[in-house]
Amino acid sequence: MENRVATEYSEFLYENRKKVNRYLNTVLWFFVITGPAIAVGIKGGIFGWITYATCIWISVIVIVLAGTHLLLLKKFPKSSVTGYFALTALDLLLVFMSCFHVKIYLTWFLVPLLSLLFCDRVFYIYAISLNFVLMGITTWITSGYYASLSSAHATPVLYFADIMSGFTIETLIMFASGTIILQLTVGYFKRLFSQHNKIHEQNESMEEKIKLLGSMAEIYDNVYLIDFVNNTETSLRDSEGTKYDLDLNSTEDPLFIRRVRDQVMPDQLDEFAKFTNIKTVRTRLAQKKIISADFIDVISGWFRAQYITVESTTDGVPDVVIFTTRNVDEEKRREENLIRISMTDEMTRLFNRRCFDEDLKALRNTVLTEDFVLFSVDVNGLKTVNDTKGHAAGDELIIGAADCLALSVGKKGKIYRTGGDEFMAIVHTEDPEKMRSLIMETAAEWRGVFSDEITMSIGYASHKDRSGLSVDELEHIADADMYAQKDKFYKERGIDRRTN
After folding, report:
1. Domain shared by 170 and 41, yes or no
2. Is residue 214 situated within a structural domain?
3. Segments in 221-376 forming alpha helices (H)
4. CA–CA gap between residue 103 and residue 126 (Å, rounded)
């Protein structure tokens, strides 16, 4: 930013030089009337020692100097040479007038004063140095004439020393005063440019934010700009950009909340009111870029409401935020589908081991109901079928077992495939033994392409019978019961279980 200020200040000096050169040219042309004005004084007896020829020469010299400067101004309007020439021309005019005894002392110090307009130290030093040198030369040239008129000065040298001592003191005072004025002026302009740059950068930043907000307005269903500094709310989807007052002390919700709230599902209104609460949003959003929550629109499904920080204080408390809503119904459906896939066994379409573990985790932190029963199920003879009839036949048995379990349990519980031929079921039933019998009866009616029979070993553990046990302990009991049923099955059929 400092480099930018320095560059812009340099450009300002060039442009300012052009303007000052124009002003100085006007001043030179104004001095043309000096000759006629002095002539009027001669006519009136005021300047008895000055001739009309002097008046003519003054006007001619001014016209030549002003004309030359005008040519320089047209060709080199921003050149420092043009400025130096104007200051030098004014001083030369004063020299000529002084040599012809037209004494206007104040005009000598007018030239350095005019040089301050350039806001450039070099111009000022040049002007005051040239001024002092030409004052000295002119005083020396005219000292003989004025010494002869003064009884206080015996010789021209004494007159010169007296006058120049005064000029020197005045020049030093002028130099010190001019330097202070120049420093204050330059400092002021540099601060002005610095502030201008800050405002410019803020405007650029605001324009970028407005463009961003405009783009956001196309993405979101609703976009509202909430200004806590000016207490206003503005819909960025509104082409007119109408601002509405935001009363944080009112018991009524702001307009932007009311517009969205009317479409929220009734059972979610409390949560929506809590999230959108305008009185607490600055605290909740402090040190954050965004907060969001999902709700259901009665017409279009799921939508996501967000508060986004645009500007904040040094403490991170937002001064300007955006409230947006965007339909995420399709996104939610994809998310739910992915969750369902991740929790589902691909072959049987039952819930998988991951889902079972998640459900057990949740059950560990809840009180089990009286009708809670955990079933452990294993398909009998799967290894023999795989070895003799192939894996397609084995897969048929697994799918058949899943179908039998699903038909039997129905809406009373959830069934999980937890391993190759292993299943678990969380069921709510007052008669678990009847449920076990129903599963076995359903399995007895099953017929497949590769196999004519499917049998399962089924064990269970109910909370009603073992109310003091945890869900994990019930799982172990159900597994133990299932293995006991499996041993019984193999013994009844005279099968060596080690080969199955």
Report:
1. yes
2. no
3. 255-261, 269-276, 281-285, 329-342, 353-364
4. 23
- CATH number of the domain where residue 255 is located: 3.30.450
Q: Which domain holds residue 349?
A: 343-499
133-159 exposure pattern, b = at least 16 Cβ within 10 A, e = fewer: ebbbebbeebbeebbeeeeebeebeeb
How far apart CA 167 and CA 105 sit, in angstroms, is 10
How distant, in Å, are the alpha carbons of 70, 141, 321, 474 from that of 113? 21, 25, 53, 103
Do residues 26 and 110 both lie within one domain? yes
Query: What DSSP character marks residue 151?
Result: S
- Contact present, 374 and 364 (Cβ < 8 Å): no
Helix 391-409 to helix 382-389 angle (10° resolution) is: 140
Which pTM was predicted?
0.44
Domain count along the chain: 3
- Asked if residue 163 and residue 15 are part of one domain, the reply reads yes
Half-sphere exposure of 383 (CA within 13 A, CB side): 7
| Domain assignment of residue 7, yes or no | yes
Taking residues 98-113, what's their average pLDDT? 73
Rounded Cα distance, 484 and 478, in Å: 10
- Residue 204 has which token pair? 């650029």
Residue 437 belongs to domain with CATH number: 3.30.70.270
Q: Which residues of 268-304 are buried (b: 16+ CB within 10 A; e: fewer)?
A: beeebeebbebeebbeebeeeeeeeeebbbeeeebbb
- pLDDT tens-digit profile of 299-343? 888 999 999 998 899 889 999 999 999 888 888 888 777 777 778
- Distances from the Cα of 110 to the Cα of 67, 246, 325, angstroms: 21, 59, 69
Residue 432 amino acid letter: P
| Residues 337-391 pLDDT 10s | 777 777 888 889 899 999 999 999 999 989 999 999 999 999 998 888 998 999 8
Q: Residue 399: which residues within 8 A CB-CB, separation 6 or more?
A: 347, 348
* DSSP H or E stretch at residue 223: strand 222-227
84 near 126, Cβ under 8 Å? yes
Amino acid at 76: F
Q: Residue 227: is it exposed, middle or buried by C-beta count within 10 angstroms (0-12/13-18/19+)?
A: middle
**Closest by CA position to 103, among listed 153, 59, 139:** 139
